Queue: 2 jobs
Job 1
Amino acid sequence: MGRRKLVVGNWKMNGLRAHLPQVAAIGAEANTHASVEVGLCVPATLILSASEARGGAFIGGQDCHAQDSGAHTGCLSAAMLKEVGATWVIVGHSERRADQHETDADVAAKACAARAQGLKVILCVGESLDTRDAGAALPFVLSQLSASLPQAAAADWLSIAYEPVWCIGTGRIPTMDQISEMHGAIRAALVDAIGADGAHMRILYGGSVNAANAADVFALADVDGGLVGGASLKAESFGPIIAAAAAAG
Ligand SMILES: O=C(CO)COP(=O)(O)O
């Protein structure tokens, strides 16, 4: 479908100014693989300096509030992220759904708020191990997707990340068949929900992506790239993942 591969690092609560050389090195890797869109979602404290060091990579935030401003101590609006250089933001990461009790409706509202500021959005979905073991992964993820999907969802500003919770930071990944099945089901659900544009929306896989498994994952039909945690913290581990996406075309 001509979908450009998208590979995004999620630094989570990692990174101080001392790590900015890694942003520059990853930005340089991005420049050598221009066929791939590369980004880094860094802690909010690093967005400004990372956006000055970013090279060919875009810089994003890891969450935003659904409101533009107000009495929400400790929260950041999409406008605030944008002002310091973010062009993308992740919403609905499973760690926020678990730790901050974010609901599907919260996630949809955050995505809309980001869109209103002109930010591009990665919306995360994924099942727990219990749900997977109960044989309910597919219906769970599809229902989470449908309830989290923002109004006016469109491929030019929204991407989906399938991140099974049991694969995040565990070194485990689903089988290639399981990833294919889920991405195919998400693709069909997107086309169902938003029409033909759903065929253009990028669907990323996330959860223990590394240099050893990236080529196999990125070769799957409906996998349009990855959302990478631990392996994105250093250019030496993220670079080969970017290269694998470039090779997968
Ligand atoms: O949660 C993730 C990215 O958002 C995945 O993290 P890991 O790549 O460290 O498993």
Note: The chain has a mean pLDDT of 98.
Job 2
Amino acid sequence: MNVPAIQAQLLTKEYSNGRGCRDVTITVEKGEAFGFLGPNGAGKSTFVKMLAGLIRPTSGSAALFGHPIGTLAAKSKIGYLPELYRYQEWLSGEEVVRLHARLCNIEKSVADRRIPELLKEVGLGLRGRDRVKHYSKGMQQRLGLACALVNDPELVFLDEPSSALDPIGRMEVRTILERLKQRGITIFLNSHLLEDVEVLCDRMALLNNGEILRHGKVSEILNKRTSWHFKVGGFSPFLLSWLKNHTGLQISQAALDKNQDEEGIIVSSAIEGSTVWLEAEVESDEQVGWLNSLMIEQGLTLYEVSRKKERLEEWFLDAVSGLSHRGEQE
Ligand SMILES: Nc1ncnc2c1ncn2[C@@H]1O[C@H](COP(=O)(O)OP(=O)(O)OP(=O)(O)O)[C@@H](O)[C@H]1O
């Protein structure tokens, strides 16, 4: 039987002040990377703490690999990197990971082999003997990742794993997570770094005020709104109205001149002479081919055709716009 890595049914935590998270129902399959998004105070950490067995739900139920949350069987399968952590600063990084290995009941010979490997993997190989009090925030976060992986977990909960890291560190952590995913480890990622979610996660859910607002496959969310850009030569306004009339599609001269493209290069709407960018909203990829041939038939030169993706940030902002985020308010 294929048991999901996480199955939560109407999981609810209501703190004494009425905050927390409410009726969260999700399933995460084995080997999936799942992104959990939401504004500050939405309830993401609360949800993860319940799954990790650190706080008790007020109502609802959840199981990890079929084992009820909070049980030893469930806990033995997980690694957890909490968002706010402070490690024993009088210990060395290596000693902190060793302490976690002992708490997980890992044999000394296994720990002796695994700890140096892990420290190397998270980029602390050369600083493992230094005391934690001499670690930067980014190094402490890497140390947290090593602790979360020490028991060779099947599922890792990562609460903002890159928040203290510089861009190089973020890229390195993303590479580590990609490697974990390739090894079939299930990843549950709380993150405000939407780019990480975009690159790594298969599915995601958006939490607001403790409740799931939206969820879906990352690939579908990114491709839902399909606008295409066409860089064309030989353009005239007459041809634009002709194309609109003959296709019935929304086509406009793209206002790219004030925007930056993905590489950060300023792109211009009037490239040279009559070369312009057009933007068309299409319903299917077939329409793009049809539009291409119509343009060529009308004597336009096609220099470039590209899909304009809806980035996750747009999706996120659109979902929460106009809603209250009481998590951070009094
Ligand atoms: N122990 C607690 N007692 C009372 N309220 C709490 C407690 N822990 C969290 N809260 C409140 O519950 C809500 C959800 O908090 P939580 O930390 O789960 O949000 P989050 O989505 O992880 O936020 P962030 O993105 O800022 O980390 C917030 O309003 C928070 O103030």
Note: The chain has a mean pLDDT of 87.
